[in-house]
Amino acid sequence: MFPRLVPISCAQNALTNGTQLDNADGLAQLAEAGFYKAVRVKAFDSMLTRTLVGARNQLLGIATKLSNQIRGLMKTFGLIIPKGTGRVFDGNVREFLDGNDGLARIILPLLEAWRDIRKRAADLDHQLLATARESQEAKLLMTIPGIGAVTAVSYVAAVEDPENFKTSRSVGAWLGLTTRRYQSGEVDYDVHISRRGDNHLRGLLYEAATVILTRTSAKTESSLKSWGLKLRERLGFKRAAVAVARKLAVVMHSMLKTGEVFNTSAGATA
């Protein structure tokens, strides 16, 4: 017997405008027709780690917005704060406010809030580093040049069990780092990456790829870097960085599966 296909609009109307019985019937019809997607439920520890990373990023974002707000407000009065972060930024702001009591009464509360938020973010940083030190998987991934504690912990929390993916290459597609394909008639070519999946982890891998391609030291030398530099000469920096980020996702999954540290001579062939 063929399953009875239910128009999505009808099911949506039943779910939004119907009674509880209608809602239950609509959900049953959706399941029967196959209009659903299986979702893997993450483990509690992974959810805690992702929450920790997300809270840290939220605080850092608020601190950045506050510092930009302070710079903008002081610029209105012709006070251009020099480049600098942390104590340098704090000292520069206080120096410019010296002797300007009226403006200081407005800016100093913002500056104090900025300092407090940075302190809270630092507390979460310590928790994140402790999590990385306690995780064998995170320490394994941190043997890759450019992969720090935040990226390693975020990757482990997102992937959880390497067996969740049949092949290492599928992780790149899962994170939206593979190119989409456009086909129409006789036209058939690759377009931009799909950008699906975990936006934050994808950004972290791109930053790690940037570090690999730009920093020159004996620790960062590898086949993966050589491969990325050749791509940069041919395709440009951004495309090369995306390609290296995808390779990193693949290599990291392979490392978690085998338990082996990063191989500098085999990074580009994984």
Number of strands: 2
Number of domains: 3
Helix content: 55-70%
Count of separate DSSP helical elements: 11
Please provide the ordered H/E string of secondary-structure elements: HHHHHHHHEEHHH
Task: Give the strand content.
Answer: under 5%
Structural class: mainly alpha
Apparent shape = globular
**If you compute it from the alpha carbons, what radius of gyration comes out, rounded to the nearest whole angstrom?**
25 Å
The parts where pLDDT drops under 50 for at least 5 residues are 1-11
* Spatial gap, N to C terminus: 45 Å
* Assembly state: single chain
Largest sheet: 2 strands, antiparallel
| Biggest sheet strand line-up | 1-2
Average pLDDT works out at 83
Structure description:
- This protein is mostly helical and 270 residues long.
- The protein has three domains: 1-38, no CATH class; 44-134; 164-269, no CATH class.
- Helices cover 65% and strands 5% of the residues.
- The chain is built from eleven helices and two strands.
- The protein has helices spanning 8-17, 20-33, 44-75, 87-97, 101-134, 136-141, 149-159, 169-174, 199-214, 223-235, 237-258, and strands at residues 179-184, 187-193.
- Strands 1-2 form a two-stranded antiparallel ribbon.
- Helix 1 packs antiparallel against helix 2, helix 3 (44-75) packs across helix 7 (149-159) and helix 9 crosses helix 11.
- It is globular and about 70 Å long.
